[in-house]
Task: inverse folding
C-alpha cells in the first residue's frame, strides 16, 4: 500500500509540476521519476540516475516540496533514490520508470524520438461506457488493422476524458505486433521540426516520420497557431496517408473549430473517422473508480465510490485526483475509507456546475480584472508579470467555461493571444482547481461578483 500510494501521489504531483516548471526542466529532470515510498513524513522519489537525483535535489526540491505539501496537506520531507529498470514492470497502476536507455544501435538512434508510453494506459484498463464506446471501438479497430480501417482516426473530447489513454493503448497494441509506431505530442512534433529547421535537417526529419507504420499525434490543437509546423504536419500527413500508414490524432476541440484544419486538410480528415468522447455517465465513472481500486488491490466501499463519482462528474483526471487524495488521507490518518473521510477529501472541490453559456465575455474580462485589482487593459497587455498572468489565466478559464466563445475569440479578448496559449491557461487553472482551495475561492468570488452586478442592474 505504501508503495502504490506513493506512486499515485507522485503521479498527481507530476501532473501539477508539469504545468509549473518549464517544459525543458520537466522533460530533463522529472519525466522519468517515480514515487517510491511515503511513510512517516518522508516522501521518496525514484530517479533514473545519480545525476538526475542530484540535480533534482539541488534545483527542484523547493517546488517538489511545495507541490507534495499542497497535495498531501501536511509537512513532508523529500528524499531521492536512484532506481533501476524493472520497477516499471510490476505495473499495478504505477508510473512508468523508463530504464536508462542502453546505447542504441545506430539504426535505432536515427528513429524519431517519441514521448514515452504510460504502461497503465492500455485497452485492458480502459472502461467502456456509453460516453466512449464509439471512440473505443474505433481505436481497437485501428489498432488491429492499422492503415486499413479508419484513416485518419481523430479522437476528440474535453480535457481529462481519455484521449491520451486511447492513443497509448493503440500504441501498446501495435507495438506488440512488431509495428513501428511513433507517439508524439503536437508540441513535440513542433519542437522537433523547429530544431530540424535550425540544424538544416528537414529532409532527415521528413524521412524519419515517413518511415513509421503508425503515427499518433496527441493534442493537435497545439499545432494550430504555428504556420510552419502546420505546413510540415500537412506534408507528413500526406506522405503517410498516401502510403496507407495509420494516423491517429487527438484534439480537445472539434476539428472544425481549429484553424489548422481548414480546407484541404479538413477534407482529408473527413475521409477518415472522427470519434468523440463525451463526459462519462455516473455508472461509467463508478466503474472507472472500481477498476482503479482493484488494480491497486484496495477495497473501497461502494457508497464511497458512488460518492466520489457523483462529486467529480466532468473530468476523469480530476475524479482520479480526488480519489487519490482520499486514499492518501486514509493512509495518513490511519482511518478506514468511510463516507465521512470521502466528504473531507472532496470538501473544497469546486461544486459550481458548468454554467449556461450566457455570460457576457466583456463582463468576465472586466470582473476578473477588478477582482485582482487590475484593469482590462492590464489583462490585454504583453506583460508576463506574475499577478497579471494569473489574472489573465483565470479570465481565460472563465471565458472558456462560462461562454461559448471559440479559443480564437477568447485570445482576441485577452489581447491577441494565440489559441494554444488560451487553451494552456484554461487547462492550467482547470487542473489546479483540483488541488488549490485558494484558487477555487477566487473563481467562485469572481463569478459571484458578476452575479451581484447583474442583480443590481436588474
Ligand atoms: P485526455 O487526454 O482526454 O485529457 P487522459 O487520457 O489523460 O485524458 O485521461 C485522464 C485520466 O483518466 C487518465 O488517468 C486515464 O487513464 C483516465 N481515464 C480516462 N478515461 C478512462 C476510461 N474509460 N477508463 C479508465 N480510465 C480512464
Ligand atoms: Mg491528453
Result:
Amino acid at each position: 500500500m505504501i508503495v502504490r500510494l506513493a506512486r499515485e501521489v507522485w503521479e498527481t504531483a507530476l501532473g501539477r509540476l508539469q504545468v509549473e516548471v518549464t517544459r525543458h526542466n520537466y522533460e530533463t529532470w522529472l519525466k522519468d521519476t517515480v514515487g517510491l515510498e511515503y511513510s512517516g513524513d518522508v516522501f521518496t522519489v525514484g530517479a533514473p540516475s545519480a545525476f538526475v537525483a542530484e540535480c533534482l535535489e539541488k534545483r527542484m526540491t523547493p517546488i517538489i516540496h511545495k507541490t507534495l505539501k499542497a497535495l498531501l496537506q501536511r509537512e513532508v520531507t523529500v528524499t531521492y533514490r536512484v532506481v533501476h529498470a524493472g520497477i516499471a514492470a510490476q505495473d499495478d497502476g504505477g508510473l512508468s520508470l523508463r530504464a536508462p536507455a542502453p546505447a542504441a544501435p545506430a539504426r535505432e538512434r536515427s528513429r524519431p524520438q517519441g514521448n514515452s508510453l504510460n504502461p497503465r494506459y492500455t485497452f485492458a484498463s480502459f472502461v467502456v461506457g456509453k460516453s466512449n464506446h464509439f471512440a473505443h471501438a474505433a481505436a481497437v479497430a485501428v489498432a488491429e488493422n492499422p492503415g486499413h480501417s479508419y484513416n485518419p482516426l481523430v479522437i476528440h473530447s474535453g480535457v481529462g476524458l481519455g484521449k491520451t489513454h486511447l492513443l497509448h493503448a493503440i500504441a501498446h497494441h501495435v507495438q506488440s505486433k512488431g509495428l513501428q509506431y511513433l507517439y508524439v505530442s503536437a508540441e513535440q512534433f513542433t519542437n522537433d521540426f523547429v530544431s530540424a529547421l535550425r540544424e538544416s535537417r528537414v529532409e532527415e526529419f521528413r524521412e524519419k516520420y515517413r518511415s513509421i507504420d503508425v503515427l499518433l499525434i496527441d493534442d493537435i490543437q497545439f499545432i494550430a497557431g504555428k504556420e510552419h509546423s502546420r505546413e510540415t504536419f500537412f506534408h507528413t500527413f500526406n506522405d503517410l496517408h498516401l502510403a496507407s500508414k495509420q494516423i491517429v490524432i487527438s484534439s480537445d476541440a472539434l476539428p472544425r473549430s481549429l484553424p489548422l484544419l481548414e480546407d484541404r486538410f479538413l477534407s482529408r480528415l473527413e475521409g477518415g473517422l472522427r470519434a468523440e468522447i463525451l463526459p462519462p455517465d455516473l455508472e461509467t465513472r463508478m466503474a472507472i473508480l472500481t477498476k482503479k481500486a482493484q488494480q491497486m488491490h484496495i477495497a473501497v466501499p461502494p457508497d464511497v465510490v458512488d460518492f466520489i463519482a457523483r462529486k467529480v462528474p466532468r473530468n476523469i483526471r480530476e475524479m482520479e485526483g480526488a480519489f487519490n487524495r482520499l486514499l492518501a488521507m486514509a493512509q495518513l490518518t490511519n482511518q478506514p475509507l468511510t463516507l465521512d473521510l470521502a466528504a473531507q477529501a472532496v470538501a473544497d472541490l469546486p461544486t459550481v456546475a458548468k454554467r449556461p453559456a450566457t455570460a457576457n465575455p466583456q463582463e468576465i474580462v472586466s470582473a476578473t480584472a477588478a477582482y485582482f485589482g487590475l484593469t482590462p487593459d492590464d489583462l490585454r497587455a504583453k506583460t508576463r508579470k506574475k499577478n497579471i498572468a494569473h489574472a489573465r489565466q483565470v479570465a481565460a478559464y472563465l471565458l472558456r467555461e462560462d461562454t461559448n466563445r471559440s479559443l480564437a475569440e477568447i485570445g482576441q479578448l485577452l489581447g491577441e493571444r494565440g489559441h494554444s496559449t488560451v487553451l494552456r491557461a484554461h487547462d492550467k487553472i482547470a487542473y489546479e482547481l483540483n488541488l488549490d482551495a485558494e484558487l477555487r475561492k477566487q473563481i467562485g468570488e469572481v463569478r459571484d461578483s458578476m452575479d451581484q452586478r447583474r442583480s443590481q442592474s436588474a
Q: What stands out?
A: The pocket of magnesium ion (ligand 2) is lined by residues 163-164, 218-219 (CB under 6 Å).
